[in-house]
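Why does residue order matter? Because the sequence determines the fold. Keep that principle in mind as you read this record.
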Amino acid sequence: MGNKRFTNWFILCVLLISVMASSCQKDEGVKDMGTIKPVAAIDSASLGIINTPGNFLAGKGILKITIEDSTYTFDASTDSIAFINVHNGDNKYFGITAINKAHTMSFGISSEGFASANVNSKVAGSQFLFTVDEKKPLLQYTLTQFVGKDDSGKITLDKYNKDNMIAKGTFFTFLAKDDKENSPFYRVEGSFELQLK
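Structure:
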């Protein structure tokens, strides 16, 4: 169980680092998505990660996340939202990562397998971080392991990598503020419609 949990954290960290790197590009005005450009990532050779051609930085679109009766929105025209495909040995993952322009809020969600249209797959990892205020500078929600073996949630891709559309779909998962057995966890729902330009 510990090894699988480490793998999920590892993949999620790679996804978040990738979007953080891409957010620096977006801040510098890299918004022309006339051609498909891979998302900048950390040194993949040193991590044993092979970046595939299916990595996209959205130029247009929205990612919405609802948790605890609040809805948070990332807008690709100003924030950095990436759709990532990652290979880690024999394991394959896809996911969405986002960080807002102010770098005060970030979200990542991943699933095992290949990304394609009409896929409904199990959530492998998820994390939502944001700054609340100066007194409580960071609030962190992470995927909880205590909802049940097969209840980590689902990512549904309705459309994927066709014409100008990167990905369109929905997801739900369960996140907790810490990883203790009796900690409350919250159902998180979201939707995304991401385009190249």
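The chain is about 15% helix and 50% strand.
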